[in-house]
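During the reporting period the student researcher (J.K.) took over the structure-prediction task from the postdoctoral fellow and processed the backlog of single-chain submissions. One of the processed entries is reproduced below for the supervisory committee.
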Amino acid sequence: MIDQSQQTPAGFEKTEIDGATPSERLSGPARWVVIIGTLASLMLVINQLFNLQLAGVVLIEGRYLYLLGGLFLGLSFLIFQIGGGKGARPSILDWVLFALSLGTTGYLAATAQTNLSQGWEYAAPVIAQWVSVGFFLLVLEATRRAGGWILFTIVTLFAFYPTFAGYVPDPFSGFQSTFLQTVPYHIYSAESSFGIPMKAFGGVVIGFIVFGAVLQRTGGGQFFNDLALGLVGQYRGGAAKVSIFGSGFMGSMSGSVISNVLTTGSVSIPAMRKTGFSARTAAATEACASTGGVLMPPIMGATAFVMASFLSRPYVEIALAAAIPSILFYWGLFTQIDAYSARRGLKGLPKPDLPRIRQVLRDGWPYVLVFALLLFLMIGLRRETSAPFYATALLLVVNQIRGQHRLDLAKLGNLVVGVGMGLAELTAILLGVGLIVGSFSATGLAGTLVNELVFMAGDSTLVLLLMGAVTAFIFGMGMTVTACYIFLAVVLAPALEAGGLNQLAVHLFILYWGMVSFITPPVAIGAFAASTMAGSNPISTGFEAMRLGGVIYIAPFFFVLNPALVGQAPAWEVAVALSCALLGVAMISSALQGYISLVGPLNGAVGLPLRILLFIGGLLIAKPQTDLINIGYATSLVLGLAFCALPMLAAWRSSASVKQTV
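J.K. obtained the following structure tokens:
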């Protein structure tokens, strides 16, 4: 068994995996309520998904979602404080809101069958109307606490939109309802708070969140970090390349950019600084790597499961489609880091200090086994809802037998509290964002807005894509990734699909552009979080992250215009498109850094023109095979190679002259 203190080089000191974070250190009655509520909710989920019929109980979907959503809604008031933050001792008001959540939830669950048979979303009795008002207000308050004021403002505006839709000018006017017509629709219909987002949450999201949490608490993070160290740590810029791989693995598990930055950044940023990276570049690298992790299969984030529900497709199809775009993003980041390191003569980490791959795999075999089981169940048997539960059970059993990261009662309690906090936060946000979806459904705006957007774009798909990118970026600044995606999937995606674009590519396009704000000023919260850890200027770190993550702005246009890059084409076409895209992205990344890996630098007075030429050449090589751009595929490839030839020749000569001087 590896002695981690000896196998981990300087700058990659082992961090505490099993202990509680400060925000998880709930104490007293609140801690026990969160633990009991989380375990009860998980038992409810397992009973429903595995059809166990414990105590002879069989729940209709509506009653199941009411119970699940209401339990975590109540817990959110004990976890998130009224003035912001989480983990502190709840106030009397928090306990009152918790009790009201359970009370209204009990009524909703008890009357679920009557609601379904009598259509309460349109004709609820008086008592049901006022109960829905109470639950509606609780959802808004929970959204404010968990998602912040910006998300709360957006959700509240759209939640009340049906009450004044008739006064809004075209193209945003819609069917108008009274307040006591709107609120019951939000709560009792299957199109609003308890619509697609919550159905995805209750079906597949919970299992994967639990799996990711258990994987991290049982040493999965350390395993992936050691694996990345062994694979790329010895090469130039090795510390940054470890960050790329490690953050990619961790992001795929956690699905959260900020938590990924705070978890892996505390280790990777100091290591990058010690090996010659500037504070700004170290922070920007971590921010980009953490952002891309949310887009990486096989787990990705909660948004991917919501997408699967929206598209009525197996999650495996979403993950497979996201594989190539994820490869392009990380390939672009990797080549930029390699060029940055080569230009500055940065070395890798000392090989004797690095973990040996064989030893890492020998000691980390449980994680390989668990992932193999997960992928087999998901891909081979198509059991997406049950796969993470089987994988989690196997991981816990093996972990307790081996003992290296064995969970005692205190650590197990911290694990349950951490899971409960994550699920309560996501529930509060999903219930709130569902109100936006419900408003578009109630007013009929979802259908009419599509035609208006297409008309405004003048039937130009490229213009519509640019409008969509800007819209996704703007909303991404004020919403979580999941909230932004849900909103745009209702408003924007149908318009893009009406323009003749591939449905799956359109939804991934929206997801990517919703992520851009994490590394783009003026918001750039991922870059700002990393800059705080590195001690760099936040704005300059944001701009450096924009350069390092430049592919994230370009790749979505590649795959939305060429479905082959999301696997929606014959195998040979996918292979050709991927090969050209990888080469084009490498040229674009080299242009952004002013250094062509394995060739040389682009220096001197002609350096900038040559970089521009190389950038254009990369775009032409990676250009989608589409009729929207009137350049043939072969012609574009030849032109791109021709544009890249001169910069590469200049870089080779520059490198040769430096060697002769030395």
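The committee noted the following: The CA atoms of residues 11 and 270 lie 6 Å apart.
J.K. will present the remaining backlog at the next meeting.
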